């Protein structure tokens, strides 16, 4: 029997508060378009993002970081529990039947913090043409089919469990 009345109900509330606070802390990083002097930062089917350097400092090194690309209408109802490579997250159905897909998976080792001096640290979204119609490659980084707008975030998974995420980017519209 607990010493203080209400102790049993207090612990779940504290755990919920801790989980909520942790989730908010993960969302401080907002993905942004690259500001590199390179050309072609936005084309008719691609855009270039800054890599999420130092965005996942509290995540285990074996976690896999995914880029989520979505149409704006999918952001409010996006579920982190639907994993990459599933029919609900396959590039080949985007944006008609799949409103968000996951691509460009890597580990934290490829996003060292801080950024090494002189290194170009960008990601080109939409650059793989060879897998665009290949349904055996549902995490394809295929060309985007229209001007958008699109929104992106980074999601860290440990196995199939979401462990951290960034905020969603502002809407990104491609050239027409």
UniProtKB/TrEMBL annotation:
<keyword id="KW-0732">Signal</keyword>
<dbReference type="GO" id="GO:0016020">
    <property type="term" value="C:membrane"/>
</dbReference>
<protein>
    <submittedName>
        <fullName>Uroplakin-3b-like protein 1</fullName>
    </submittedName>
</protein>
<dbReference type="InterPro" id="IPR024831">
    <property type="entry name" value="Uroplakin-3"/>
</dbReference>
<feature type="signal peptide">
    <location>
        <begin position="1"/>
        <end position="25"/>
    </location>
</feature>
């Amino acid at each position: 029997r607990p010493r203080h009345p209400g102790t049993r109900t207090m612990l779940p509330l504290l755990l919920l508060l801790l989980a909520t606070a942790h989730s908010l802390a993960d969302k401080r990083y907002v993905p942004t378009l690259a500001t590199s002097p390179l050309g072609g930062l936005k084309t008719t089917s691609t855009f270039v993002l800054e890599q999420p350097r130092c965005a996942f400092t509290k995540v285990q090194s074996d976690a896999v970081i995914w880029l989520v690309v979505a149409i704006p209408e999918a952001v409010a109802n996006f579920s982190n529990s639907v994993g990459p490579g599933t029919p609900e997250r396959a590039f080949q159905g985007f944006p008609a039947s799949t409103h968000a897909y996951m691509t460009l998976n890597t580990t934290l080792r490829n996003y060292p913090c801080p950024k090494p001096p002189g290194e170009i640290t960008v990601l080109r979204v939409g650059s793989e043409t060879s897998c665009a119609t290949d349904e055996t490659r549902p995490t394809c980084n295929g060309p985007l089919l229209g001007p958008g707008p699109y929104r992106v975030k980074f999601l860290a998974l440990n196995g199939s469990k979401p462990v951290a995420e960034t905020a969603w980017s502002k809407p990104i519209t491609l050239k027409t």
